[in-house]
Amino acid sequence: MKPMLPFEKYFGKLELVYAFYGAMPTGVSVSETGRIFICFPKWGDDVEFTVAEIVQGKLQPYPSLETNLINPGNLTMSFISVQSVVADGRGTLWVLDTAAPNFSEPIKGGAKLVAVDLKTNTIRKVYTFTEDVVLPTTYLNDVRFDFCVGKAGYAYITDSSSKGPGAIIVVDLENGDAYRRLNGARSTSPDPNMLPKVEGEILMNRNKDGSTFPFRLASDGIAISPNGKVLFYCPLTSRYLFSISTEALRNRNISDMDLLYNVEYRGEKGASDGMITDARGNIYAGDYENNSIRKIMPNGTMVTIAHDPRILWPDTFSIGPDQYLYVIVNQLHRQARFHYGKDLRQKPYSLLRMKIDELPAPTFS
Asked: Can you tell which superkingdom this protein's organism belongs to (predicted)?
């Protein structure tokens, strides 16, 4: 009789919220009233609509199908390829449109941050970007908000470029004034020494013709402290966590060189895609190399709260008013571009949640 050998321990109580049998999702956000929004960037799948709401167990284009159809004559009012959706807890869904289908150069005039009124389900305001902010290499990835400063608040956006400099893009929501900070800095750049490993294999770009090159993505995950004073961020291909004072980021009198001295290294947390903070200042971060979710306390203590074989690339996080942590799991690493043109993803992709007994960090005092 063969002995029963020990095997890896898995833990964390995860619940399936929604199973996706169509296009691959990346973003999720739960509003203050419990509405759930999803986005589907155009990375090669057949994307019917790039932003959706889950209504009575079904996906519905949001705020309308018309808005999700590219209108070449009015790019500012139509969604092109949305990477992130964020409900701000005060009646607005913010939509971050890369305007870069298949990681192309952003379509001129198409990259934008859109405010959608959740009461009327209509677009309230659109913020576009100049060519010195959204570069030909830019890939707008994720966004966080602070409405405690300025007349209308500020947004902070990660540029997760694979071909150009990473950065944090700061947006004054009063007038739309936007500018790049930490452009090409070490803290917003991929770790050149990192070899990502997922499901026991090295993750790298592997083309149909047999050629290969390293997988490198700049600043991606982003989270903000409950008081809005500290921004946390990480490159996608890095295991490190960094932070910076939002006041320093906004202060354009601080030169780019001097701004580097305001960056704090917060230690190794594992390789993360998405991050989020709760009302107590705890940070939740995925670890895509280890099928895990980590919780980082304000004092720096880190614990793994979930380790599960179903966590096949934890992407975006959101905390709902129900005190659940929601996470999109989308098998990003199994895409064809990493496997010589062979798509290894297995449907469905999933939206999972786990009870954390914490509320989301507020964006306003």
From this structure: Bacteria
Query: Is residue 41 situated within a structural domain?
Result: yes
Q: Which long-range contacts (CB under 8 A, 24 or more apart) does 205-212 make?
A: 205/337, 205/338, 206/337, 206/338, 206/339, 206/340, 207/337, 207/340, 207/341, 208/340, 208/341, 210/340
pLDDT tens digits for 307-316?
999 999 999 9
**Contact present, 23 and 31 (Cβ < 8 Å):** no
How many residues would you count in the chain?
365
CATH of residue 100: 2.120.10.30
Residue 312's domain spans which residues?
Answer: 15-355
Selected residue with higher pLDDT from 365 and 354:
354
The 3-state DSSP class for residue 18 equals strand
**Whole-number Cα distances in Å, 314 to 122, 238, 304:** 30, 15, 13
Q: How confident is the model at residue 365 (pLDDT cuts 50, 70, 90)?
A: low
Per the CB < 8 A criterion, the answer to whether 307 and 292 are in contact is: yes
| pLDDT, the chain, mean | 97
On the question of pLDDT at 1 being above 90, the answer is no
| 5 located within any domain | no
